[in-house]
Amino acid sequence: MSVVSLPADAVSAFMDRVLDDLQVTAPELSAQISRLRGRTAEAPRILVTGGPGAGASTLVRALVGDAGTDGSSEPVLWCAAGRSVPEDVPVGVRVRQVAGAALQNLTLIDGAGTAGEATAAVAACADAVVYLVDREPSVADRERIRQLGFGPAGTVLVVSRADEFGAGSLGSTDPLADARGYARALSEDTSSWVTAVAVSPLLTAAASSPAVTGDAGLAARLASYRSPAVAAGLLGTDVPPALMADLQLVGTYGVLHGGAGGDQPGRWLADVSGVGDLRTLLLGRLAQAALLRRSAEILDEAGQLRFTASDPAAVGEVLDRAGSAPEAWRIRLFPEIARLAEAGMDDDAALVARIGDADSPADLAGVPAGSPQVEVLNGLREQLRTVNLRLTGFTVPVVETALTAVSVVLRRAIGEVETGLGGSDYSTDAGLWKT
Ligand SMILES: Nc1nc2c(ncn2[C@@H]2O[C@H](COP(=O)(O)OP(=O)(O)OP(=O)(O)O)[C@@H](O)[C@H]2O)c(=O)[nH]1
Ligand SMILES: [Mg+2]
Question: CA-CA 20 to 30 A from 230: which of 274, 289, 375, 377?
Answer without folding.
Answer: 274
